[in-house]
Amino acid sequence: MCGATKGGPSTEGLDLAEAAVVQGVVVRGGQPVGNAYVRLLDGSGEFTAEVPTSATGQFRFFAAPGRWTVRTLAPKADAVDRQVEATLGEVADIEVSL
Amino acid sequence: MSDNNRERVLVDPDWVESHLADDKIVLVEVDEDTSAYDKNHIRGAVRLDWKKDLQDPVRRDFVDKAAFEALLSQRGISNDDTVVLYGGNNNWFAAYAYWYFKLYGHDDVRLLDGGRKKWELDSRELVPDKAERPTTTYTAKDQDRSIRAFRDEVEAAIGQKNLVDVRSPDEYAGRLLAPAHLPQEQSQRPGHIPTAANIPWSQAANDDGTFKSDDELSTLYGDKGVDLGKDTIAYCRIGERSAHTWFVLHELLGQPNVKNYDGSWTEWGSLVGVPIALGDTP
């Protein structure tokens, strides 16, 4: 069980029984980026959801199990794509470096 | 003709920057994340909260005409003002507010193309201080029901009109009940309305949140079997993403009879006895 977070928001109090969580943090030069936009694309590349990062650069999606692409857009940076596998009952935690 | 439509209903960030000092142009931020405004916003912009301000606190419905009048008066919006709406997430909730302003008959409403995201990605100015506008006496019209669909009309439209389900493919097929960044809750049953085409609302927008060209948009809907010669009803989960699609079909492409079914899947998926389809095909 990978409940322990790395860069993403705390999973304390999160009911993971029915959730496949994809979350993480966006950083630039080791510093969190609080004005980025993170997009979740499904296995066919279709857009599913988008969230702005928090002041601490964090984001979270409640996805379905499967393969996803996390696309990050931020001012003065090229878009960054990361592949993620989401699993029911688990938290996939990634760090996106711009 | 649709080029003219764009001029009438869309503005770009440069236009907004050059009109920041114009009192008759009111910038209104409407965000899914209603706290984004508190952090910062475009200079002079006021906020509308899609939940607290635009939904009846007791019944599942919109605020009535008198409450809408009181709201706009309090925000300092006049009937002859040009209202420019913007928000995050491809203008999702701003497009909903646009439809809502049209429902109550506001004359000149526009969307900032790309919304808050494009503005931020361009590194344009955002300020934290709250804007104050002197109160007005706003007069709304009766709801324009030609752009709002209710459940009986939707049931009668199965196999007759275009039904466009603008949720994500997983919601359409019944694998998810809500968008992937929101908790899993809402309707009793998953799936979609039989015969509805699945054209996710977000396909109408580029990555930076701006709308695709008219040609790209016509191709998008045409390729998914939407007969642009027929009347159309769009729906999603709670009627907000489908307001974005209503904007594309009715305001950008100039389709005459397009309605937003704001009851959407949270109503349909909880109704007793209505037909439901599961899986990836209509």
Structural account:
The complex is a heterodimer of chains A (98) and B (282). Chain A has 98 residues and is mostly beta strands. Chain A has a domain at 20-65 and 81-97: Immunoglobulins (Immunoglobulin-like), CATH 2.60.40.10. Chain A has strands at residues 20-28, 31-32, 37-41, 47-52, 58-63, 66-73, 80-86, 91-97. In chain A, strands 1, 2, 5 and 8 form a four-stranded mixed beta sheet that branches. Chain A has a four-stranded antiparallel beta sheet with strand order 4-3-6-7, with no helix packed on it. In chain A, strand 1 (20-28) and strand 2 (31-32) form a beta hairpin. The radius of gyration of chain A is 13 Å and the shape is globular. Chain B has 282 residues and is an alpha/beta fold. Chain B folds into two domains: 2-143, Oxidized Rhodanese, domain 1, CATH 3.40.250.10; 146-268, Rhodanese-like domain (Oxidized Rhodanese, domain 1), CATH 3.40.250.10. Helix content of chain B is 32%, strand content 12%. In chain B, helix 5 packs across helix 10 (241-252). The interface between A and B is medium-sized, with 27 and 28 residues.
Global shape of chain B: globular
> Could you describe the largest sheet of chain B, including whether it forms a barrel?
5 strands, parallel
By CATH's scheme, which homologous superfamily of the domain at 20-65 and 81-97 in chain A applies?
Answer: Immunoglobulins
What order do the helices and strands of chain B follow? Answer: HEHEHEHEHEHEHEHEHEHEH
Q: Count all strands of chain A and give the number.
A: 8
**Treating each run of at least 4 consecutive H or I residues as one helix, how many helices of chain A?**
0
Strand content of chain A: over 45%
Approximate shape of chain A: globular
